[in-house]
Amino acid sequence: MPDDERMMLIGFRPEEERLILARNNPDNARYVVVLVHGIGGGFLAVDKIQGQAESLHGRIAAGQDERDVSVITWADYTVPESAADARDPSHAAAATGQFAGFLAALPVTAKHGRYGKAARVVVVARGYGGLVAGLTARDHGLTADALVFLGCAGVGVQSASELRFGGPVYAASAGGDGTPDGVHGPRPDSPGFGATPLRSGPLSFQDDPFVRYLPSLRKIVFGRL
C-alpha cells in the first residue's frame, strides 16, 4: 500500500489545535469508522489517538483487504482537556455544524473513489465525543449507518427518539473519559434511553478503550448486528 494511503491528514488547523486523521483513504473504502474522542483526545494527544486508530483498523480489517476499511479520527473541535472543561456543552455545540457537514461530504467524495459509491459509515463517539455526536444528530441529523456511544455520561438528549437519525444506536457504559455523569442528560446506556446495550470484555494492557468492544464493533461495522 502506498504511504499516502496509510495515514492521511485530511484536516488540520494548528492555530486552533484541530485535526482530522484517516487510516486509509475513506473515499476508497467499503467501511468507514469515524471516531470522536472526548477529554484529552485532541490535537495535544495526536500520538495516542493515531495509535488507537491504527490498532482499531488492524483488528477490524483482519482477514480481508485492509483498504476496504478506513478509520477516521475526527478532532476538528475544541476538545476539553479536563472533567471541569467537559461540564461546558459549548465546545460540543459549536462543533455540530462542522461535524454534520463532514459526514454529509463522505458519500459525495466517495463517488470518485475506488468503488464509486458511498461506504457504510459507523460513528463511534467516546465520552464527551458523545455529546458532539448527540447534539449533531439532534440539531442537524447524522449522515451515517450506525451510531455507537462508548462511556458517554450524557449526549444532549433525553432519549434516542430525539436524535434525527434513522439507523441503530448502540451504547456501553465502560470506557468513559471522565466527563461527569448527569451534566448533559441521562447516560445513553441507561434503561429507557432506547439504545441497544453492548457487552464489554476485559480492558487491554494498553488501556485502549475500543479493544473491549471489538467483537461487537466488528459486527456493527460490517452490518451484522
Automatic annotation (TrEMBL):
Domain DUF1023: 24-175
Disordered: annotated segments: 176-198
Family matches, as Pfam families: Abhydrolase_8 (PF06259)
Entry superkingdom: Bacteria
Protein's recorded name: DUF1023 domain-containing protein
